Amino acid sequence: MRSTSRTEAFPAHTPAASQIFTTVLSHGPLTRSEIAGRTRLSAAAVTKAVRPLIEAGYLVEDVDDDARQPSLGRPANPVQVDGGRALFIGVKVTGDELIAVLTDLCCRIRVARHLPLTSRDPGAVLASIAALVQELLTEADGFGVSVHGLGIAVSGDVDRAAGVVRYSPFLEWSDVPLAELASLTTGLPVTVDNDVRALTVAEQWFGAGVGLTDFAVVTVGAGIGCGLVVHGHVVSGAYGVAGEIGHVAIDPAGPPCHCGNRGCVEAIAADPAIVGRIREVTGIEVADTAEAVDLAHAGNPGAREVYARAGDAIGRGIATVANLLGPERVIISGEGLAAYDLFAEQIREAFAAAAFGSAARCDVQTRPLPFEEWARGAAATAIQSFIRSDTY
Question: What b/e sequence results for 68-90 when a residue is b if at least 16 CB atoms lie within 10 Å of its CB, and e otherwise?
């Protein structure tokens, strides 16, 4: 693989400068006075930070926007991010597939690729990641812009600061130094993060969380995940684990969970748990989630009851988040939304019953996202690492 080492440093050398840039990234175009108002920084600090970003081409000024010019004094031209100034790669690793995207600085997907995994061995997965990255680097040549970072999103316990996958149940990995290995293989700066946390970064900067200081992303599907944003920061926890509502035990006498406990939300509401329980209850050997959903939609009472129980578990898990953190919004996503109509009512009822006081005012909304968006989340973490000096 050709050398792709990044020699260019982002010209925002302080947390304030990074804050200014990310504010424009999420909310722009903005005038300097609007930036000052949103960041609560002085006009002088904004001007000082914006100048080198414009000189380096990361921000561009719209000098033709007469609508924003004041009647007196210096024109208040808005600035915005030049998305084409830099490119990034994001890779989402599932148990049987890699999804990779090439994005611009505004995290808009330019190219997407899928590659089946024939082995979950770390070495084999790393080789497949390297192959996808090489393909996307070739695509990047056509844009005439360098790739400045690679983000990799993996389910499970991921220590972002160390770049280590501590434990991934779906991949059966333990203590894999993925960031170091991927960087040596690709020549790129690499950020490795939990997949739900990465998706949360993308939602915070570019999606349904823009403008919110406190919200959560709950994902349903192969597992039950949760990403948290508190006071404007994505929470990673002291040891890289936070928001694991999938392992909140809501029924001590419930089914065993792979984590070693019983009655966890994930042991009741994750896709494998639902499929397994439907087989037990109905005696029908449904092969996968699609067949389970079809059976429930056909009116099978046992299958419908299993989904109702799953909805109750998810609703209680979301209420736990609302009670502990009081987010303004909870965004439900994940491949499990294909069955949402089968348990939406139970989610709402369980949430309303278990949420305490004003926590019940939390806006719970669904946001179906394809796996390319999870890979985009991985790219968002790479963008975040590139432009922020205070990355969590």
Answer: eeeeeeeeebbbbbbbebbbbbb
Task: Return d(Cα 233, Cα 240) in angstroms, integer.
Answer: 14
Higher confidence at residue 260 or residue 190?
190
Integer Cα distance of 160 and 102 in angstroms: 21
The torsion of the CA quartet 42, 44, 50, 54, rounded to 10 degrees, works out to: 160
Q: Which two tokens stand for residue 99?
A: 């999804």
Rounded Cα gap, residues 311 and 296, in angstroms = 14
The DSSP code for 256 is B
Q: Which is it for the CA torsion 392, 193, 329, 274, positive or negative? A: negative
Contact 118, 142 (CB under 8 A): no
Report whether 61 contacts 77 (CB < 8 A). Answer: yes
At 279-318, the pLDDT tens digits run: 999 999 999 999 999 999 999 999 999 999 999 999 999 9
Per residue in 255-269, pLDDT (tens digit) is: 999 888 999 999 999
Residue 253's region, left for phi above 0, alpha for psi from -120 to 50, else beta, is: alpha
Mention every residue, 6+ apart, whose C-beta is less than 8 A from residue 322: 330, 351, 355, 356, 359, 360, 362
CB 163 within 8 A of CB 152: no
Can you point out the beta strands (E) in 232-281? Answer: 233-234
Distance CA 298, CA 310 (A): 18
Q: Are 200 and 217 in contact (CB under 8 A)?
A: yes
Q: Is the pTM of this model over 0.70?
A: yes
